[in-house]
Amino acid sequence: MINSHEALIRQLSAQGELSLEDQRAISSISMTLRSFTPGDYIGREGKSVSTCAILIRGFAVRQKFTRLGDRQIVSLHGPGDAINLQNAFLEFPDYDILSIEDCVVSFVDASAIRVLAAERPAVARSLLIGAFTEASTAREWMLNMGRRSARTRLAHFLCEYLDRMSLRRHSADGKYELRLTQEQIADATGMTAVHVNRMLKALQSEKLIKQLGRFLSVPNMAALMDAGEYNPRYLHLPQSNF
């Protein structure tokens, strides 16, 4: 498990080179670790916060609800992700952050992030690029939700999920644990859990994926990417991984 300062340095370095002085400045700030169990809220929509969170272990999602209580998962997050750095500049988050498995999260005071951004141009640049990348990802999710068929939508979602998992070396013999339930996948893709189940079976029948319980493998990634109209360019993923 990576430590708190290393996670923040890697998150910011992924958006641009940081000098040794920048890294030392980041390493000098105070951070606090907290543990969360599945279903715990790491952050709540509309609740004023004074800290930013870096996910050290586990997986979490951002989500929003309609007035009637229907949920939409709007992003996925794994180890090393800074899941709410905008809290350094925006007082009220517009989404919940929910742990979907046991998580360890490091919290840093938002004022410390503001000081780093003010005093360290490379850090400020990385924060800006990170915000641009989130906007790029949101646009792709909007297209996926609004204009793609259920089959294409699910294939695209799985491609992104596998790319994020590959980035963090969570593969065992080419198999990936599908850490989201079918209900959670449904809430991320605008389908029902029943429809997700049906589409997973369809992708299996086409030999685009193999699923055994919670584990997933992809015999032909290029074919799955084609089925999902998937190009990872919008993620702006770093070449190195955790």
TrEMBL record:
<keyword id="KW-0804">Transcription</keyword>
<dbReference type="Pfam" id="PF00027">
    <property type="entry name" value="cNMP_binding"/>
</dbReference>
<dbReference type="Pfam" id="PF13545">
    <property type="entry name" value="HTH_Crp_2"/>
</dbReference>
<dbReference type="InterPro" id="IPR018490">
    <property type="entry name" value="cNMP-bd_dom_sf"/>
</dbReference>
<feature type="domain" description="HTH crp-type">
    <location>
        <begin position="148"/>
        <end position="222"/>
    </location>
</feature>
<dbReference type="InterPro" id="IPR036390">
    <property type="entry name" value="WH_DNA-bd_sf"/>
</dbReference>
<keyword id="KW-0805">Transcription regulation</keyword>
<protein>
    <submittedName>
        <fullName>Crp/Fnr family transcriptional regulator</fullName>
    </submittedName>
</protein>
<keyword id="KW-0238">DNA-binding</keyword>
<dbReference type="InterPro" id="IPR014710">
    <property type="entry name" value="RmlC-like_jellyroll"/>
</dbReference>
<dbReference type="InterPro" id="IPR012318">
    <property type="entry name" value="HTH_CRP"/>
</dbReference>
<dbReference type="InterPro" id="IPR036388">
    <property type="entry name" value="WH-like_DNA-bd_sf"/>
</dbReference>
<dbReference type="InterPro" id="IPR000595">
    <property type="entry name" value="cNMP-bd_dom"/>
</dbReference>
<dbReference type="GO" id="GO:0003677">
    <property type="term" value="F:DNA binding"/>
</dbReference>
<dbReference type="GO" id="GO:0006355">
    <property type="term" value="P:regulation of DNA-templated transcription"/>
</dbReference>
